[in-house]
């Protein structure tokens, strides 16, 4: 078929005209398609109108699926120098918390508890100092839809710190009277916070309670002497504890010790004897000498806190002036911080079992140099443990103070736990 060009138009013009016509046709077709999909209100647009409603429905469904629960974490993400106590809080509104995980960089979890109403979570303990933590929390709204929040922060690095020195040593076997005793390098003004950071577990189980002597010493013991064979584990989690304003603990340590056989020795200052019992049976009665008049030995329950094969004893160190200075006292077992020892005596003559001649200590017959293992002082020294109990009775002095040495047994349980 031949098509004649429009009169007066060039070939190029005819080409542009054809393209224009094609564009016009395509435009009309496109308009028709748009009209079909536009969702007008006419009867011819029924299916198109349905497609539009479907789009709005997807958006509404997405909004419906989103949880209404809101999780908030304090401190804010990226916070630095965060306090180790009281600063960490997780809360939920319009929903309830179902899971909270707080971990340090090593993956160690911080224990905590979600409140009964699900509105909050708080840690069960303080945080460590100078430590980075991450928090992951999940909550659900009333329709069971979940919302999550994540955060990270770093706790403060303290300028002033404290630690606790302790007895007995880790891994030791001790006598039935041995308390776990801590002395802090700084005076403590928040004793409850410090005590909460210390846990004691025993096998078999026994109730163990702490008692403060002043603001720098904390001792733990059961109501009665330990049972033979008891295993004791102490966890010190003092790192991050604010013991006093601006002074934080810097110590995490686990200490374990075992209770040995039950040995209790009773010194009768009037009879000048010491009866040594193990597991309730007398194994030896030893002649002794105690404090002479004016230098009477303390009465009461005393615990061996230190054993020295040989030591120097100088009266000036305990307020007695220059009355004595013995450089080689053998087989010495410390009973008080004030200087009372149960020790070997090679200068006492016939005093043992007959009269009291010491300056307050309990003396047992010995030889100079302590080389004879058969003498009473050597025998007792070799059969004793740190933590063994020595009870002195019938002396003319008062009962030893509970904090003079490891001698808290001289305090009633009611006062100990008050």
From TrEMBL:
**This enzyme's EC code(s):** 2.3.2.-
Q: Which InterPro entries match?
A: Big_10 (IPR041280), LD-transpeptidase (IPR050979), LD_TPept_cat_dom (IPR005490), Transpep_catalytic_dom (IPR038063)
Q: What is this protein called?
A: L,D-transpeptidase 2
* A Gene Ontology term for the protein's cellular component: extracellular region
Q: Please name the top-level EC class of this enzyme.
A: transferase
The organism that produces this protein has a lineage beginning with:
Bacteria, Bacillati, Actinomycetota, Actinomycetes, Kitasatosporales
Quick one: which gene encodes this?
Answer: ldtB_3
- Keywords carried by this UniProt record: Acyltransferase, Cell membrane, Cell shape, Cell wall biogenesis/degradation, Lipoprotein, Membrane, Palmitate, Peptidoglycan synthesis, Signal, Transferase
- Which Pfam families does the UniProt entry name for this protein? Big_10, YkuD
* Residues at the active site: 343, 361
Q: Where is this region: Disordered?
A: 40-68
The biased composition feature labelled Gly residues covers 40-49
What pathway or pathways are given for this protein in its record? Glycan biosynthesis; Cell wall biogenesis; peptidoglycan biosynthesis
């Amino acid at each position: 078929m031949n098509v004649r060009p429009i009169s007066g138009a060039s070939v190029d013009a005819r080409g542009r005209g054809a393209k224009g016509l094609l564009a016009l046709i395509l435009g009309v077709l496109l308009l028709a398609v748009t009209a079909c999909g536009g969702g007008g209100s006419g009867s011819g647009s029924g299916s198109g109108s349905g497609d539009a409603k479907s789009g709005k429905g997807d958006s509404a469904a997405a909004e419906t699926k989103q949880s209404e629960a809101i999780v908030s974490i304090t401190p804010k993400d990226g916070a630095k120098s965060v306090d180790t106590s009281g600063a960490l809080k997780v809360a939920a509104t319009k929903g309830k918390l179902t899971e909270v995980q707080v971990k340090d960089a090593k993956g160690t979890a911080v224990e905590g508890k979600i409140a009964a109403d699900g509105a909050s979570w708080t840690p069960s303990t303080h945080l460590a100092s100078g430590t980075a933590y991450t928090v992951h929390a999940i909550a659900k709204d009333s329709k069971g839809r979940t919302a999550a929040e994540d955060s990270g922060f770093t706790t403060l690095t303290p300028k002033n710190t404290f630690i606790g020195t302790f007895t007995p040593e880790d891994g030791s076997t001790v006598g039935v009277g041995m308390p776990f005793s801590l002395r802090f390098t700084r005076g403590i003004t928040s004793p409850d916070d410090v005590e909460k950071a210390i846990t004691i577990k025993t096998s078999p189980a026994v109730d163990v309670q702490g008692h403060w002597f002043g603001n720098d010493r904390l001792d733990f013991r059961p109501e009665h002497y330990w049972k033979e064979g008891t295993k004791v584990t102490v966890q010190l989690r003092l790192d991050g504890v604010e013991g006093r304003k601006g002074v934080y603990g810097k110590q995490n340590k686990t200490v374990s010790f075992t209770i040995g056989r039950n040995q209790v020795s009773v010194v009768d200052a009037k009879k000048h004897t010491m009866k040594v019992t193990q597991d309730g049976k007398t194994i030896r009665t030893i002649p002794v000498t105690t404090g002479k008049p004016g230098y009477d030995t303390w009465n009461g329950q005393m615990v061996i806190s230190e054993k020295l094969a040989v030591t120097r004893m100088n009266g000036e160190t305990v307020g007695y002036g220059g009355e004595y200075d013995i450089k080689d006292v053998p087989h010495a077992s410390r009973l008080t911080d004030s200087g009372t020892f149960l020790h070997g005596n090679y200068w006492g003559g016939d005093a043992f079992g007959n009269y009291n001649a010491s300056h307050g200590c309990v003396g047992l017959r010995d030889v100079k140099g302590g080389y004879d293992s058969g003498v009473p002082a050597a025998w007792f020294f070799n059969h004793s443990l740190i933590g063994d109990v020595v009870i002195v009775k019938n002396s003319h002095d008062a009962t030893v103070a509970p904090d003079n040495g490891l001698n808290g047994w001289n305090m009633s349980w009611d006062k100990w736990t008050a």
